[in-house]
Amino acid sequence: MSRRTTYLIVLLLSIGVAAACLVYYKYNEKNPDVADLKPDFTLSSTDFITSFEKDSAGVKKYNDKVIQLTGKVSQTIPGDSITTVVIDDEKTLNISIEMASKNNDLAKNLKVGDNVTIKALYVDYIAADPLLASFGEKGSIKLKKGYIVK
Amino acid sequence: MKNLFLAVAFIVSLGYAQNETKYKTSTGSISFFSSTTLEDIKANNNQVTALLSSSGAVAVIVSIKSFEFDKSLMQTHFNENYMESDKFPKSTFDGKITNMADVKLNTNGTYSVTVAGKLTIHGVTKEVSEKGTVEVSGTNITIKAKFKVKLPDYNIKNDKTNNISNEIEVTVNCKLAKV
What we know:
The complex is a heterodimer. Chain A is of the alpha/beta class. Chain A has helices at 3-28, 45-54, 104-108, 130-134; strands spanning 41-44, 66-78, 83-87, 93-99, 115-126, 139-148. In chain A, strands 2-3-4-6-5 form a five-stranded mixed beta barrel. The model of chain A has no long low-confidence stretch (mean pLDDT 86). Chain B is α+β, with helices and mostly antiparallel strands. Chain B contains two helices and nine strands, in the order αββββαβββββ. Chain B has helices at 2-19, 72-82; strands at residues 22-35, 40-53, 57-63, 68-69, 90-97, 109-121, 124-137, 140-150, 167-178. Chain B has an eight-stranded antiparallel beta barrel. In chain B, strand 1 and strand 2 form a beta hairpin. The termini of chain B are far apart. The relative contact order of chain B is 0.19. Classes of the chains: A alpha/beta, B alpha+beta. The interface between A and B is medium-sized, with 28 and 27 residues.
């Protein structure tokens, strides 16, 4: 076997191993931690809710984006490992943020009326409709993987 | 006389509706599980809105993007290739507990129920009927159910049947509080 052929085999094997490593890494890659991501939008809870009330179709700009919100806590719903924080602003919609499990201890200690800044991933918008209203439920803007910024 | 009868019937039904007890949550859980010889796939959603009235009416609203997978790539494929969550962002169930007379909402216990209604997934609505339980504990009610969903029934394309089963097991666990 010539030296050139040997180099070629080693090169091809190296490329193959590198490609296999890349595929393995991409396949097993975990979801990113919102704590490590910069916010795409930073705004008050009032402005965030108003943007949905004004233009529910235009809010697609928030899809899969990290939102940093400042507002007053109206409710905390503690779960086994995840707490949900609701920011209300007495509007027709509320903001429901499922906190990251890593941030659960801090989130559990939030109290109604606390001013809080939370960074989270936008999920969806459930418009207020007669069915929800008949159960006393408002429309809701849902975010997940929330972290308390301050 | 006929009008008087209708007016009385309306007032009675209004009073009945107002006396209905209602329960709700916006932090219910739904998970699904797919098992093939190659791999098991599981995802959880803890942002489910579920509503129940004492007459047995049930409504469930699920944001598809709230499903969390262990692996980022699976979550991307789920949203983009299978559920097309930008096009069909929600799944809903609108139905009724058909044997609500067996459920004593003021007596703690676990009651077997049958829930029937319209299940909408991926923009396709089907009439379904599934078994489940209603657990009463004080003013809280927990709805639990486990059922199978066949992907072709809801026009969900599955080109990788070796990796993803065409029949997905769905587990519902929603703890509702009295409104």
